[in-house]
Hints:
Blueprint: E1 7-13, H1 19-27, E2 35-40, H2 47-57, E3 62-66, E4 70-71, H3 76-86, E5 91-98, H4 101-110, E6 125-129, H5 130-140, H6 156-166, E7 171-180, H7 186-209, H8 233-244, H9 255-281, E8 289-294, H10 300-316, E9 321-325, H11 331-335, E10 340-342, H12 347-355, E11 359-363, H13 371-386, E12 391-394, H14 404-415, E13 419-422, H15 425-434, E14 439-442, H16 455-464, E15 473-477, H17 487-493, H18 497-514, E16 519-522, H19 529-540, E17 549-551, H20 558-566, E18 570-573, H21 576-585, E19 589-593, H22 597-604, E20 611-613, H23 619-630, H24 632-667
Parallel strand pairs: 1-2, 1-3, 5-7, 8-9, 8-11, 9-10, 11-12, 13-14, 15-16, 15-18, 16-17, 18-19, 19-20
Antiparallel strand pairs: 3-6, 4-7, 5-6
Amino acid sequence: MSDGHVVxxxxxxxxxxxxxxxxxxxxxxxxxxxEVIVIHDxxxxxxxxxxxxxxxxxxxxxxxxADDDCVPPRDWLEQLVRAVDRDAAGxxxxxxxxxxxxxxxxxxxxxxxxRVQPSSAYGGNVLYRRSxxxxxxxxxxxxxxxxxxxxxxxxxDVELAGRLRARxxxxxxxxxxxxxxxRVTPRGYWAQxxxxxxxxxxxxRAARSGRVALAQQSLLWDHxxxxxxxRGPRWLLAVWRKLVGPFDVKSFPSLRHFLVFWAGExxxxxxxxxxxxxxxxxxxxxxxxxxxWGTSLHKVADEAQMIAACDAIRLRMPQARITLFxxxxxxxxxxxxxxxxxxxxxIIQVLRRLARSDLFVIxxxxxLENRAQVFSCALLIGAARLWRRPVVTFGSTILDYKTxxxxxxxxxxxxxxxxxxxxxxxxxxxxxxxxxxxxxxxxGDPRILLTPAPAEEIRGLLRREGFDGTRPLIGLTTxxxxxxxxxxxxxxxxxxxxxxxxxxVILGRTISALSQRADVVLLPMHPTYDEDLKTAEAxxxxxxxxxxxxxxxxxxxxxxxxxLIAACELLIAGRLGSAIxxxxxxxxxxxxxxxxxxxxxxxxxxCGRYVRDWxxxxxxxxxxxxxxxxxxxxxxxxxxxxxxHLKSQAAANGELIARWARRDQVKAA
Length: 669
């Protein structure tokens, strides 16, 4: 625009019906937004999380926040942007016009906003300079504090404005009001006031710490943001006003509105007391105790799930004590040092550790039609619920259940889980089909956040495997479908011997064509290395020159495998896990889909046209492989464009775990 700014408007939403009105008002602005980012908080992770997520996705030098139940006037953005330059401001704040009689009377009762030094930044009508927000992130480790904005706790905008004010960032008021469409019921208003009280308690603690400069007038701190050194009459006045008063009935349109407001003041006082009580008698500084269970450590892709879960917990809760219920394999313990591993078969020890935990996390995809898994799920979830421990899932896969008993059992299991994070659309559809009412959110696959082994280590590994680096590499991962594979795999993949034979023939032809350009190597990913050897032999038997297909001498660990895929120019992926590793490594993917998840994932990363169903492979697949080889540089750039968003989605897994762990610690106070 002619003002020289790029303006990003961010709307956090829980999918209120008023969202469409807000978006229509933004499209009608006299100064249009350069981008509008809507963050759907389907997992109810809180408005602070949604705002931080919006900032991460935005590219503007000016960040503007709107609410999904507010309608701005046509010149809203024009006035905010003009003020930021005119007054050299770091924050520009507007006002709010209420449509609900109670909220309108309450706002008028507080008086007009101070236009010289506004008391706070109203979250639905505020503009920030990105440079100010980035300075906060660099110095404080975050922008909006995610302890605010969860479960109705407010004050995240006031707290951020206080930190910015403490650093000398100018804040100005612009007399432009958005129209707040929210209508409240007595019960909803009282719940809102209780959360507001908790937010005020958190702000009070922040003010006493000296790290924020609150300009909002309060009996709890001075106008100049310095808390009273000692408790005095101001505290008595606050108690009188909140617990006995107020008495200004005439400020409200009716006696009923006044009584709802009067009771709301008591709810706010109760929320404030509860916020202080949890802080004083809780154990927020104690190391949270998290128990993990789910995927086995037999396959490298499952091992990667567990490593990603541990990394996510450690990133957000460095002091957390993590216990994994699994069969030890020696390798995982070295990869994730400091993790306690208890064999699942030691059921008494498992249940004791679960009883002393703060959170139980189910990792990956144990939700399959397997009676042993159903029994394990039911036992562990039942024990966690008995001891009132929250249960959440981490990057879970939920497939289509074919049997009646599977649908019946899993619906009851899912209903006992507090928060379900699934990594594919098919999982949400399946939950909907089952009629599950638990909170469910679509997140990214956490394995995309794993870092590969160092490049020098990978070069040495390849030299030992006989690759000298003179020719490019093409990787291959596939499934060995035979009579001894699990029944659920055959059912899901539509197994027939004829399909297996035809797929191997086409893969052999594809490898022969690509071997003219690069060395093709099969990357072991099966639970046992023998399965990969059988897969290689089955494909070689169809080839005129079997030596064109190489296979590594052994299976490698997760980070090593990602490094190997990063060393490849192209990956033919028959496994979803390998496609995710390829995304993290930036390697173009040609998919051989054995079930519905792989096509959906490749569509997300820009490789949607480079995938075929394994049961329908023919010679067009060979031509598709040659086309991708020629166009791999372009595809790689497209993948990079999707990577930041996918990593942001994947990070939601760790945020979910941290939020529930903190919540349980507060509840246990």
